[in-house]
Amino acid sequence: MPHTPGRRSPIPWRSASRRAALAAAVSALLLGAAAPPSATSQGIGDRLFPELGNPGFDVIAYDIAFTYHGNDKPLDAVTTLQAEATDRLERFNLDFAGGTVRSVTVNGLPAEYTPVKEDLAVTPAVTLPDEGHFTVTVHHTSDPRVAGSGWVPTSDGLVMANQADAGHRVFPGNDHPSDKARFTFRVTAPKDLTVVANGLPDGRSTRGAQTTWAYRSPHPMATELAQVSIGRSAVARRTGPHGLPVRDVVPAADSRQVEKWTARTPAHLTWMDRKVGPYPFETYGVLLADASTGFELETQTLSLFERDLFTRTDIPDWYLESIMVHELAHQWFGDSVSPRAWSDLWLNEAHATWYEALYAEEKGGRRFTTRMRSAYEQSDTWRADGGPPAAPKVPQPGRKTSIFRPNVYDGGAVVLYALRQKIGAPAFERLEREWVAGHRDSTAGTTDFVALASQVSGQDLTQFLRAWLYEPTTPPMPGHPDWKPVSKSA
């Protein structure tokens, strides 16, 4: 469930003296104790990632401390979760794998714990009542050397890339976009390195050869959007629309070379502001990583890009800028309004592709309609390979990111194009603005989008959009009877 500022404060479970007495009484029994036989892997039943997330509680806030020792060693970490029980909990699970757990406490009391598949099963010393707030603190390591970890090694440090299911390989929590929470990061690293994370700076202190950097995100965030950058970085600061603080994080050695690109971020923000409304967060910027990832990623307030994309000389300006706009558009579509289930991924990628294509038309002369027609012609093939846009096929074994197929990118954008053809451009533009404004800092799904489209247009679009979103073949395009899907064999 989404969380917004203003929820009631946690209620103390008992006095400090009582807590201390209970801790002393049970610690000898709990330390090193085996978990109960009934401990099993859990999940909230997501169709694509059924074991992600955990039932029985919602996370309100994360406070995560990392100590960095170099890319060849695990980070020492302490993750503290503030959560609210939605059921009476004799035990609960956290998503976590890829590190060693050293201790777990719940409300200050030692708790039993054991790894179960990619979960950490926890049995608190005292059963947690329904609707009660509680705190979990996990002392653990976070290992960037583990294959499939959310950490991406760079030439001078680390960055994060947790989408779609790697957040729990970095820190314990509820690793599903439906459970958004506020984040605080505290990262200790050698003082000659720069650390940047989601949100705004919240203090920095140096002790000896180490500096601790703190960042706080006042808006709720999905775990897959977390970002921490550690490296020899330069941070360029600018001002965006409405006085928005903009900071771009780039390899220090490349700062002059990439300035021509990063300096365009405020203009991109202004362009998106005019299309869909005010930027939804407290800051924005691009993060250039000296690493080969094969993707760019919309981590919240700090989009991740490969350095080489900005240092090459064979890419047209309009093309690179349209990619920058794609990730920026995700700050509205996917970050501020996050998918309720991973099958709603098309809402993220279709919209980001939509504004990428619009920008390429306005700034690069690449005809938007030509791209939509080409995508329409290929749509049946994409549906056969990856499923309809709102019902993508399950990930391929060992390739969790295989859900990111063309059917949810340009294939999803074709659905938006059909919708605009059906209801008209003015109604479509109102829908876009109302979607991001009405679901800001929250989660929403395909049924919500269909309902809002029907409301804004004054038409019942249920059957129309059901065919476009769920059928194995692509319906006829309104207003374009000459457009025909191309068969897969052709």
Describe what you observe in this structure.
- The chain is of the alpha+beta class and 490 residues long.
- Helix content is 29%, strand content 26%.
- The protein has eleven helices and 21 strands.
- The strands form seven sheets. An eight-stranded mixed β-sheet has the order 5-4-8-2-1-11-14-13. The protein has a three-stranded antiparallel β-sheet with strand order 3-7-6, with no helix packed on it. It has a two-stranded antiparallel sheet with strand order 9-10.
- Helix 3 crosses helix 5 and helix 7 packs across helix 8.
- The longest helix has 20 residues.
- The N terminus is likely disordered.
The number of helices is 11
Task: Report Rg.
Answer: 23 Å
Low-confidence stretches: 1-37
What class would the helix/strand composition place it in?
alpha+beta
Strand content: 25-35%
- Give the proportion of residues in helices: 25-40%
Largest sheet: 8 strands, mixed
| Number of separate strands | 21
Distance between the termini: 45 Å
**Shape type:** globular
What would the average pLDDT be, to the nearest integer?
92
Strand order, biggest sheet? Answer: 5-4-8-2-1-11-14-13
Features:
490 residues; alpha+beta; eight-stranded mixed beta sheet; three-stranded antiparallel beta sheet; 11 helices; globular; disordered N terminus
Topology (elements, then pairings):
Blueprint: H1 16-30, E1 57-67, E2 75-85, E3 92-95, E4 101-106, E5 109-110, E6 112-116, E7 119-123, E8 133-142, E9 151-153, E10 158-160, E11 181-190, E12 194-197, E13 200-207, E14 210-221, E15 228-231, E16 233-239, E17 245-251, H2 255-262, H3 265-276, E18 286-289, E19 303-306, H4 307-311, H5 317-329, E20 337-339, H6 345-364, H7 368-386, H8 410-423, H9 425-438, E21 442-444, H10 446-457, H11 462-470
Parallel strand pairs: 1-11, 18-19, 20-21
Antiparallel strand pairs: 1-2, 2-8, 3-7, 4-5, 4-8, 6-7, 9-10, 11-14, 12-15, 13-14, 16-17
